[in-house]
Sequence to fold (285 residues):
Amino acid sequence: MVAHDPQYGRHRGDGRPGLFRSTTLEHRTVTAYDRADGDHRGAALMTDTSTAVLQPTGRLNMVAAPAFKNLVEETVASGQTRIVVDLGQVTFIDSSGLGALISGLKATRQAGGDLRIADVPEQVMTVLRLTNLDRVLRAHATVVDASHDW
Amino acid sequence: MTGEYLLEGLAVPESLNLLHDLLERVGSEHPEIDSGDLMLFETAVIEVAGNVVEHGRPHGRVSWTFHLAVLPDRLEARLSDSGEEYPGGTWGTSMPQDPMQEDGRGLALATAVLDALDYDRTGEVNHWTMLRRRG
Fold:
């Protein structure tokens, strides 16, 4: 049986927070040789290796925030300085979670990259607005939307 | 419909998830509570409790009692902790001016979503009272 790092597991199924890390972002693009019959099986898959998508799950609170902050720092240190944080699976964020996002924003920018957030749930959006952080962490509708025009 | 809830424990980070679970239970047992009200109340409770976890002394050995009342016109909670008295300096109810500051938003956020947030100390116990009127 393979031992999993408990900090980086997918959904544990017990409601506790976990982190899923996807190391590269894949853009699916349709190539110029699309066939007239609409068969797009020849679509090329372009991989942008400087971009990472991080997907925290559950509650991004004082319990989970330190691990998330470390994950961002490790990701930047590995050379992926453009980070999209997919918040679609986050059920709750507190000021510790906000602090981890701001920390990540600073870390990526200091390395010449950036951090963007996508698929932001209602509670997270409300908290971002109340703290005025929606001005520095602009919400993108989807991960794909967030991954263009860095 | 009204209801009362009680939770006792240690003021450590893991206890915050027990508070989240309790608030979820409140929501499932009181579906008549507006989900937005409950969401914002939970946000405040977690910030106030997180403040106790972070600033309560002696660190890791502060115990607390959380009492929540669902009343016809409001949600009211009282968090009582055994920690030392809080100096005025931790009472940060305004947002940091610098958006890149990583901390200092907790009690400001709680203040923003509550109709009242009060702190008082009786004997050796700190009391944090949180009130949100139901919409």
